[in-house]
Amino acid sequence: MFEVRDVTKRFGGLTAVSDASLMVDSGEIVGVIGPNGAGKSTLFSVIAGVLRPDEGVVLDGEKVLTGLRPYRMARAGVARTFQTPRPFGALTVRENMVAAAHTVHRSTADAHAWAAECLERIGLTELAEVAASTLPLGMRKRLEVGRALATKPRLLLLDEVLGGLNPNEIDTMVALIRELRQSGMAICMVEHAMAIIMSLCDRIYVIDHGVVISTGTPQEVSSDQQVIDAYLGGSV
Ligand SMILES: Nc1ncnc2c1ncn2[C@@H]1O[C@H](COP(=O)(O)OP(=O)(O)OP(=O)(O)O)[C@@H](O)[C@H]1O
């Protein structure tokens, strides 16, 4: 069980995340939703070790992860994707995967073998030798997920991996996410596509102005008056 407990993150005078708590269990998909600027990406960055919180802790069971550098966080089993995919553009798809696989495999042969397995899983084997920078957005997003998977996470943080994808690409990505849940991974995703979030997630946290204003099953949060007022605007 991964837990974010009472986390606050400030940027100067702005409190981007305020006393937020969240839990994700293995085999569970948890959604984080909220308006633009609500603090979702900041919360992810705190969990992934990219940002250090001003207050609060990130826990893996009893183990404190807060303050670990991203590389160590990856070793501890936490991986994130970025809203804007960040592959090493000059490297090929395979080289990107191998670089990520080296987080968990010292030997080059092992890293290559594991990268090949992950490439197969994300369906990019046929494009393995092309430069990552030449991939269209849908494929780049898949590579982004693949690079996270290559670090063998127990907690996978997906930041808007469905944004900008066409319906076919969305179906492929959703199927992959379901498969990962089935394999026992803990998954936490930020997404704006409400219908998909509602059908995919086991539980949802709603953030507004950095504060978790509601949590529960998709049905519970979508019937929460505070959520409807703050975010859904009566559209659900
Ligand atoms: N590095 C930073 N320095 C200063 N302010 C920041 C920084 N990163 C984020 N913010 C601010 O913190 C607040 C939360 O931003 P964040 O990107 O976490 O929101 P979000 O919910 O992910 O938004 P979106 O849905 O648009 O991606 C915003 O007001 C943003 O401008």
Question: What descriptors fit this protein?
Answer:
binds adenosine-5'-triphosphate, alpha/beta, Rossmann fold, 36% helix, four-stranded antiparallel β-sheet, 9 helices, 236 residues
Can you describe this structure?
The longest helix has 16 residues, at 167-182. It contains nine helices and ten strands. Helices cover 36% and strands 25% of the residues. It has one domain: Rossmann fold (3-Layer(aba) Sandwich), CATH 3.40.50.300. It is globular. Helix 3 (93-101) crosses helix 4 and helix 3 (93-101) runs parallel beside helix 5. The strands form two sheets. A six-stranded mixed β-sheet has the order 6-7-8-3-9-10, with helices on both faces. A four-stranded antiparallel β-sheet has the order 2-1-4-5, covered by helices on one side. By secondary structure, it is α/β, with parallel strands linked by helices. Adenosine-5'-triphosphate (ATP) is lined by residues 11, 14, 16, 34, 36-42. Adenosine-5'-triphosphate is lined by residues 11, 14, 16, 34, 36-42.
